[in-house]
Description:
The chain is mainly beta. It is built from 1 helix and 2 strands; from the N terminus they run E-E-H.
Amino acid sequence: MGKPIVLGGLRDHQKDVTRGGVAILSELPIIGGLFGRASRQTTETELYLFLTPRILKTDADADSVTAPRMPKGVER
């Protein structure tokens, strides 16, 4: 069997800002901070693609690779 290789990776970085509060009072210039709130959230995601090369010579080889595998102890 071949060894797994990493083909590449994708990274995503998202920043979200949410504001809320009392409808009119939170929008006032000086005292609005007393009646409102803001939350910030940062999310980072990484995706890597791992490939394991295999040589398939017969249909039986292809069937053994593509057949669904059930974890041990799980019955259909």
